[in-house]
Amino acid sequence: MARKDKEVTLESLEAGFRxxxxxxxxxxxxLSVAAMKKLRRALGEEASYTVAKNTLLKLAAGRAGVxxxxxxxxGPSALAFVKGDAVNAAKAIKTFAKENQKLVIKGGFLDGxxxxxxxxxxxxxxxxxxxxxxxxxxxxxxKMAQAAALFAxxxxxxxxxxxxxxxxxxxxxxxxxxAGTPAAPAVVETPAAAPEAVAEETQTEAPAAxxxxxxxxxxxxxxxxxxx
Length: 228
Description:
By secondary structure, the chain is α+β, with helices and mostly antiparallel strands.
Protein backbone atom coordinates (compact mmCIF):
# COMPACT_ATOMS: atom_id res chain seq x y z
CA MET A 1 0.00 0.00 0.00
CA ALA A 2 1.36 3.41 -1.01
CA ARG A 3 2.21 5.80 1.79
CA LYS A 4 -0.54 8.22 0.77
CA ASP A 5 -3.17 5.49 0.61
CA LYS A 6 -1.97 4.15 3.91
CA GLU A 7 -2.41 7.57 5.56
CA VAL A 8 -5.90 7.96 4.11
CA THR A 9 -6.88 4.53 5.42
CA LEU A 10 -5.39 5.33 8.81
CA GLU A 11 -7.34 8.59 9.05
CA SER A 12 -10.53 6.81 8.06
CA LEU A 13 -10.01 4.14 10.73
CA GLU A 14 -9.18 6.78 13.35
CA ALA A 15 -12.40 8.63 12.52
CA GLY A 16 -14.27 5.34 12.82
CA PHE A 17 -12.96 4.83 16.34
CA ARG A 18 -13.67 8.43 17.35
CA UNK A 19 -17.16 8.76 15.88
CA UNK A 20 -18.57 5.36 16.78
CA UNK A 21 -20.75 4.68 19.81
CA UNK A 22 -19.24 1.18 19.92
CA UNK A 23 -16.74 -1.01 18.07
CA UNK A 24 -17.28 -4.75 17.61
CA UNK A 25 -14.25 -6.80 16.62
CA UNK A 26 -14.48 -10.06 14.65
CA UNK A 27 -12.28 -12.51 12.81
CA UNK A 28 -13.51 -13.25 9.31
CA UNK A 29 -11.05 -15.98 8.29
CA UNK A 30 -12.50 -18.03 5.42
CA LEU A 31 -15.60 -15.90 4.80
CA SER A 32 -16.48 -15.42 1.16
CA VAL A 33 -17.10 -12.06 -0.43
CA ALA A 34 -20.81 -12.91 -0.74
CA ALA A 35 -20.98 -13.71 2.97
CA MET A 36 -19.32 -10.41 3.84
CA LYS A 37 -21.88 -8.54 1.76
CA LYS A 38 -24.66 -10.40 3.52
CA LEU A 39 -23.28 -9.36 6.91
CA ARG A 40 -23.05 -5.73 5.84
CA ARG A 41 -26.68 -5.84 4.71
CA ALA A 42 -27.66 -7.35 8.07
CA LEU A 43 -25.95 -4.52 9.90
CA GLY A 44 -27.73 -1.98 7.74
CA GLU A 45 -27.37 1.62 8.91
CA GLU A 46 -26.51 0.57 12.43
CA ALA A 47 -22.84 -0.03 11.63
CA SER A 48 -20.21 -0.13 8.89
CA TYR A 49 -18.16 -3.32 8.57
CA THR A 50 -14.50 -2.69 7.74
CA VAL A 51 -11.60 -5.03 7.03
CA ALA A 52 -8.13 -3.68 7.80
CA LYS A 53 -4.61 -4.76 8.73
CA ASN A 54 -3.93 -5.12 12.41
CA THR A 55 -0.99 -2.70 12.33
CA LEU A 56 -3.22 0.06 10.98
CA LEU A 57 -5.98 -0.77 13.41
CA LYS A 58 -3.59 -0.52 16.35
CA LEU A 59 -2.27 2.83 15.16
CA ALA A 60 -5.77 4.21 14.54
CA ALA A 61 -7.04 3.03 17.90
CA GLY A 62 -4.06 4.62 19.65
CA ARG A 63 -4.64 7.94 17.89
CA ALA A 64 -8.31 7.88 18.87
CA GLY A 65 -7.50 7.12 22.51
CA VAL A 66 -8.95 3.61 22.45
CA UNK A 67 -6.83 1.28 24.57
CA UNK A 68 -7.05 -2.41 25.30
CA UNK A 69 -7.73 -3.86 21.85
CA UNK A 70 -4.15 -4.77 20.89
CA UNK A 71 -4.38 -8.27 22.35
CA UNK A 72 -7.47 -8.97 20.20
CA UNK A 73 -5.93 -7.71 16.99
CA UNK A 74 -4.50 -11.02 15.89
CA GLY A 75 -5.35 -12.86 12.70
CA PRO A 76 -7.66 -11.48 9.96
CA SER A 77 -9.60 -8.71 11.71
CA ALA A 78 -12.73 -6.85 10.72
CA LEU A 79 -14.48 -4.20 12.78
CA ALA A 80 -18.05 -3.04 12.95
CA PHE A 81 -18.01 0.69 13.65
CA VAL A 82 -21.40 1.16 15.27
CA LYS A 83 -23.24 4.43 14.57
CA GLY A 84 -26.66 3.44 15.89
CA ASP A 85 -27.77 1.08 18.64
CA ALA A 86 -24.93 -1.21 19.74
CA VAL A 87 -27.46 -3.85 20.80
CA ASN A 88 -28.90 -4.13 17.30
CA ALA A 89 -25.43 -4.40 15.78
CA ALA A 90 -24.43 -7.09 18.28
CA LYS A 91 -27.63 -9.01 17.53
CA ALA A 92 -26.92 -8.89 13.79
CA ILE A 93 -23.37 -10.17 14.23
CA LYS A 94 -24.41 -12.89 16.69
CA THR A 95 -27.18 -14.13 14.37
CA PHE A 96 -24.82 -14.14 11.41
CA ALA A 97 -22.16 -16.01 13.41
CA LYS A 98 -24.66 -18.78 14.21
CA GLU A 99 -25.29 -19.28 10.49
CA ASN A 100 -21.64 -18.81 9.49
CA GLN A 101 -19.26 -20.59 11.82
CA LYS A 102 -16.25 -18.95 10.20
CA LEU A 103 -17.14 -15.57 11.69
CA VAL A 104 -15.69 -15.38 15.19
CA ILE A 105 -16.63 -12.65 17.67
CA LYS A 106 -13.48 -11.48 19.44
CA GLY A 107 -14.64 -8.55 21.57
CA GLY A 108 -15.17 -4.83 21.26
CA PHE A 109 -15.18 -1.42 22.87
CA LEU A 110 -18.17 0.40 24.39
CA ASP A 111 -18.50 3.48 26.61
CA GLY A 112 -14.78 3.59 27.28
CA UNK A 113 -14.60 -0.07 28.27
CA UNK A 114 -13.14 -3.09 26.50
CA UNK A 115 -15.64 -5.86 25.79
CA UNK A 116 -14.77 -9.53 25.74
CA UNK A 117 -16.44 -11.98 23.35
CA UNK A 118 -18.77 -12.99 26.18
CA UNK A 119 -19.67 -9.34 26.76
CA UNK A 120 -20.67 -8.94 23.12
CA UNK A 121 -22.84 -12.06 23.40
CA UNK A 122 -24.58 -10.59 26.46
CA UNK A 123 -25.00 -7.27 24.69
CA UNK A 124 -26.75 -9.07 21.84
CA UNK A 125 -29.17 -10.68 24.30
CA UNK A 126 -30.36 -7.32 25.63
CA UNK A 127 -33.52 -5.63 24.40
CA UNK A 128 -32.94 -2.96 21.79
CA UNK A 129 -33.42 0.73 22.44
CA UNK A 130 -36.60 0.73 20.35
CA UNK A 131 -38.12 -2.09 22.38
CA UNK A 132 -37.22 -0.41 25.68
CA UNK A 133 -38.68 2.91 24.51
CA UNK A 134 -41.86 1.14 23.37
CA UNK A 135 -42.21 -0.52 26.78
CA UNK A 136 -41.57 2.79 28.53
CA UNK A 137 -44.17 4.52 26.37
CA UNK A 138 -46.68 1.75 27.12
CA UNK A 139 -46.06 2.02 30.85
CA UNK A 140 -46.43 5.81 30.75
CA UNK A 141 -49.63 5.51 28.73
CA UNK A 142 -51.08 3.09 31.28
CA LYS A 143 -50.18 5.41 34.15
CA MET A 144 -51.73 8.38 32.34
CA ALA A 145 -54.93 6.39 31.76
CA GLN A 146 -55.08 5.53 35.46
CA ALA A 147 -54.54 9.17 36.40
CA ALA A 148 -57.23 10.33 33.97
CA ALA A 149 -59.71 7.85 35.45
CA LEU A 150 -58.80 9.02 38.95
CA PHE A 151 -59.48 12.66 38.09
CA ALA A 152 -62.58 11.91 36.06
CA UNK A 153 -64.34 9.85 38.75
CA UNK A 154 -65.05 12.68 41.26
CA UNK A 155 -66.15 15.01 38.46
CA UNK A 156 -68.71 12.54 37.12
CA UNK A 157 -69.97 11.88 40.62
CA UNK A 158 -70.45 15.61 41.20
CA UNK A 159 -72.35 15.98 37.95
CA UNK A 160 -74.67 13.11 38.90
CA UNK A 161 -75.32 14.67 42.31
CA UNK A 162 -76.15 18.07 40.84
CA UNK A 163 -78.48 16.48 38.30
CA UNK A 164 -80.27 14.53 41.05
CA UNK A 165 -80.83 17.75 43.01
CA UNK A 166 -82.19 19.48 39.94
CA UNK A 167 -84.68 16.67 39.28
CA UNK A 168 -85.75 16.66 42.93
CA UNK A 169 -86.31 20.43 42.89
CA UNK A 170 -88.47 20.25 39.80
CA UNK A 171 -90.59 17.49 41.36
CA UNK A 172 -91.02 19.15 44.77
CA UNK A 173 -89.63 22.71 45.18
CA UNK A 174 -90.42 22.64 48.91
CA UNK A 175 -87.59 20.18 49.47
CA UNK A 176 -85.05 22.88 48.85
CA UNK A 177 -87.23 25.96 49.55
CA UNK A 178 -85.53 26.70 52.85
CA ALA A 179 -82.07 26.26 51.49
CA GLY A 180 -79.94 29.33 51.97
CA THR A 181 -82.32 31.07 54.54
CA PRO A 182 -80.43 32.01 57.69
CA ALA A 183 -81.85 30.74 60.96
CA ALA A 184 -83.44 33.31 63.37
CA PRO A 185 -81.20 34.29 66.25
CA ALA A 186 -82.03 32.66 69.56
CA VAL A 187 -83.60 35.00 72.23
CA VAL A 188 -82.09 34.67 75.67
CA GLU A 189 -84.44 35.81 78.49
CA THR A 190 -83.04 37.12 81.75
CA PRO A 191 -85.01 35.68 84.71
CA ALA A 192 -86.70 38.23 87.08
CA ALA A 193 -85.51 38.50 90.63
CA ALA A 194 -87.42 36.33 93.11
CA PRO A 195 -89.75 38.18 95.59
CA GLU A 196 -88.05 36.51 98.54
CA ALA A 197 -84.75 38.10 97.58
CA VAL A 198 -86.34 41.60 97.52
CA ALA A 199 -87.88 41.08 100.88
CA GLU A 200 -84.62 39.96 102.40
CA GLU A 201 -82.85 43.06 101.12
CA THR A 202 -85.52 45.34 102.68
CA GLN A 203 -85.38 43.60 106.01
CA THR A 204 -81.62 43.83 106.12
CA GLU A 205 -81.58 47.63 105.73
CA ALA A 206 -84.56 48.49 108.09
CA PRO A 207 -83.07 47.64 111.49
CA ALA A 208 -80.17 50.02 110.94
CA ALA A 209 -82.56 53.00 110.73
CA UNK A 210 -84.50 51.95 113.84
CA UNK A 211 -81.35 51.64 115.92
CA UNK A 212 -80.36 55.18 115.04
CA UNK A 213 -83.71 56.62 116.10
CA UNK A 214 -83.74 54.69 119.37
CA UNK A 215 -80.24 55.82 120.19
CA UNK A 216 -81.16 59.46 119.70
CA UNK A 217 -84.42 59.48 121.81
CA UNK A 218 -82.96 59.45 125.41
CA UNK A 219 -80.63 62.33 124.58
CA UNK A 220 -83.59 64.55 123.74
CA UNK A 221 -85.45 63.68 126.98
CA UNK A 222 -82.39 64.53 129.11
CA UNK A 223 -82.20 67.97 127.60
CA UNK A 224 -85.83 68.76 128.38
CA UNK A 225 -85.45 67.68 132.07
CA UNK A 226 -82.48 69.92 132.67
CA UNK A 227 -84.17 72.93 131.31
CA UNK A 228 -87.23 72.45 133.58
